[in-house]
Amino acid sequence: MIQIHLTSPIGTAISVAVENAASILPTVRQYGKLGYTSGEVPSGGHSLPLANADDFDFALIGAHPYINKEGEACIMHRGQSYKRRELEAVENKKMSLPKIVKYSRGARPTDLPHVKEGEDGGIQYVTLLTFRGGGKKLTAYALNAVQQNAAD
């Protein structure tokens, strides 16, 4: 048996047993839709290929997408709202940066120093999730993977 350790939206820790590795993602999705999370968000946030940006299944990280009153795409994760930001590719003599899609929010004084990005004394933010680069799409993390598994 494999044990998955999860935390509820109100901080209750549980462990869920799954039969095999193939059961892990469906179980994480099931509990993630209820707001359960596993592990901690790494410094700089989770990083995935840009190809996953438009159909990532946010239940995998215990988040759910919504549109805020300004019409912006956001996700709610552990009681915090993160806004979708699209940074276009930069190509000039000094630097070359690929297009990036990220979900971030303004940093708060209560955020741990290692999760804050930006200059001290200036504007700082916290990134939950970044999609970048030309890596191959991780189809197991896509929303259509849920529909595909349901059809099987």
In short:
With about 150 residues, this protein is mainly beta.
Fold blueprint:
Layout: E1 2-7, E2 13-18, H1 24-32, E3 46-49, E4 64-67, E5 73-77, E6 80-87, E7 90-91, E8 96-97, E9 100-106, E10 116-118, E11 124-132, H2 143-151
Parallel strand pairs: 3-11
Antiparallel strand pairs: 1-2, 4-5, 5-6, 6-9, 7-8, 9-11, 10-11
Care to describe what's here?
The chain has about 150 residues and is mainly beta. The chain has 2 domains: about 1-40, no CATH class; about 45-140, no CATH class. It has helices spanning about 25-30, 145-150; strands spanning about 1-5, 15-20, 45-50, 65, 75, 80-85, 90, 95, 100-105, 115-120, 125-130. The strands form 3 sheets. Strands 3, 4, 5, 6, 9, 10 and 11 form a 7-stranded mixed β-sheet that branches. The protein has a two-stranded antiparallel ribbon with strand order 1-2. A two-stranded antiparallel ribbon has the order 7-8. Strand 5 and strand 6 form a beta hairpin. The radius of gyration is 17 Å and the shape is globular. The mean pLDDT is about 90. Keywords: DNA-binding. One of its GO terms (molecular function) is DNA binding. It comes from Deinococcus psychrotolerans. InterPro entries: ssDNA-bd_DdrB-like.
